[in-house]
Design a protein that fits this description.
There is one protein chain. The chain has about 220 residues and is of the alpha/beta class. It has a single domain, classed as Alpha/Beta hydrolase fold, catalytic domain (Rossmann fold), CATH 3.40.50.1820. Helices cover about 35% and strands about 25% of the residues. It is built from six helices and eight strands; from the N terminus they run βββαβααβαββαβα. Strands 1-2-4-3-5-6-7-8 form an eight-stranded mixed sheet, sandwiched between helices. The longest helix is centred in the last third of the chain and has 19 residues. The two termini are about 20 Å apart.
Length: about 220
């Protein structure tokens, strides 16, 4: 269903990504999907295909430039070497701008590492119309969520060791402080519960979070 494409970053450099096109064609609303720390793998391509099936153009920028891993240590290393500021303001912004050429509205949807990046995007990328974050929060010094001007939806796990509930509470406090339009949902599940290939997959929580995501996208970008 999808294919590899090249798109321009704001600084003029080229990036690649996986692009899934719906039957509705090139003017359908767009969603930029941001990978977990594993890279642009088949699982995240599957998320793009799923969105294309419900009539969204879906683009996953390849933040690791072709590297994909199943190894936790390597994933940690790859994520540690990623320039998050550059990823948000160049790779992801470039992907949003690419979809915006034909789509009047574009959302950003991120998981794990991509969830943290999606919140950075909500702060820094003015072209985005809405953001959905699945279990990821950027460091406080990286972005001030109270400055977000677009609707934000977040899905977090109560048993998350990477992004514990106390971090979610702090995020929600910042969103409230800024009068941001937001929805935060908490699930009795573990980190990365939405990844059907992972050890922590929770089908019930995933189904509910996915339905809420689809409803949110329909409300804000359809």
């Amino acid at each position: 269903m999808g294919k590899k494409i090249t798109f321009k970053r704001p600084d003029g450099k080229e990036s690649t990504g996986y692009y899934a096109i719906p039957s509705a064609g090139e003017n359908a609303p767009g969603v930029v999907i941001i990978q977990e720390w594993w890279g642009l793998n088949d699982q995240i391509k599957g998320v793009a295909n799923r969105l294309a099936e419900i009539q969204y153009r879906a683009l996953v920028p390849d933040l690791y430039k072709g590297t994909v891993t199943l190894d936790v240590a390597e994933a940690e290393h790859l994520m540690g070497n990623l320039d998050f500021g550059d990823a948000a303001t160049q790779e992801i912004q470039g992907a949003v701008q690419y979809l915006k050429e034909n789509s009047p509205k574009v959302a950003v949807l991120g998981f794990c590492m991509g969830g943290a990046l999606s919140i950075l995007t909500a702060v820094h990328v003015k072209e985005a119309n809405a953001v959905v974050c699945w279990y990821g929060i950027p460091p406080e010094e990286a972005a001030d969520p109270s400055t977000i001007k677009i609707p934000l939806q977040g899905h977090f796990a109560q048993e998350d060791e990477f992004f514990p509930p106390i971090q979610v509470d702090a995020l929600e406090a910042r969103l409230k402080k800024g009068n941001v339009t937001y929805e935060i949902y908490r699930y009795q599940a573990k980190h990365a519960f939405g990844n059907e290939t992972g050890d922590n997959h929770d089908p019930e929580a995933t189904k509910l979070a996915w339905q809420r995501t689809v409803d949110f996208l329909a409300k804000h970008i359809k």
